[in-house]
Amino acid sequence: MPCPHCKITIIKRSNNESTVSAAAYQSGEKLFSEYDQAQKYCPYKTEVTHKEIMLPPHAPPEFADRNTLWNSAEAQEKQWNSQLARRFVLAIPREIPPEQYADLLRDYCREFFVSKGMIADFAIHDKRDGNPHSHILLTMRAMDEKGRWLPKSRKVYDIDGNGERIRLPSGRWKLPGSLPSHKAGKDISKKVHSSYVLKAQKGQREAMECTLAKDGERIDVLEKMVLRLYEDMVAGRITEENFNLLLEKTQKEQAELKAKVEEGRKRLADEIRLAVDARQWVESIQEYKDITELDASTLNRLIKKIVVHETIGSDKTRHISIEIHFNLKPIPEVEQVTG
Q1: 134 FRET partner, CA 20 to 30 A, in 124, 128, 152, 256?
Q2: pTM
């Protein structure tokens, strides 16, 4: 769903910034900076509701400690103007239930950062004032298979015969190994079909959000109308009888809209939960997309149980109903197969 605020910055030593200080701020913890030889702490950060460090498979387990992680990351950077970490500040849509905030951020970090070798340290801040948001710190360096910091990655571009970079029709520069547009189109066509339903559901959620926003604006307008009507009655511009009639009409519309908004928010929350479940299911099924042989081990991991019902009908028109219960979380609806 749309994110109304997203701020991305680089923590730089040239700006007298520190990743240890940034980590202390977003986590609300007391951390000690080995570079500055000073303790970093923000005692007024009381709105931290969740904090977590996500490590790629080959990262040392000791990096799950926030103080160890960010002091190690800073120690790799020797220059006075080194870039130390990436920092994201993301608003969390208020329609999402608070108990789903952590899962939402965890999925986001896993897909876009941790899967690419980065370490993600995220925290959720919520003062219960209608502005839940998250802070994400990312390492600038990935890690190799032995848990050692790798050099910072730099982009390499294809060049033409004159030594100039090649611009693609999209406006981006051509990278080594870039596929021609028709080949790239074939490569992604499989992904388009599998994500079509999810995109349609996203469009429905956005339409619901738009309707909720318009209804909310109308409620605000009606509240202002009530105040103006009262002022007009006090000033003698309308009679008390007319005021009461208009007030009753306005309050009735207000009540109907508030009930509609409340119901809409519940439906939207349900849609979001379904979308999260669908996404998790798609991710979990990816493990099995390239199976060439269904051996016993794969079958046990993929399927929880198979229920074969009693045969119905005569020999010529026999029907057998089979239920396949997949061993996935969340478990999708039971697939009915008739044979």
Answers
A1: 152
A2: 0.48
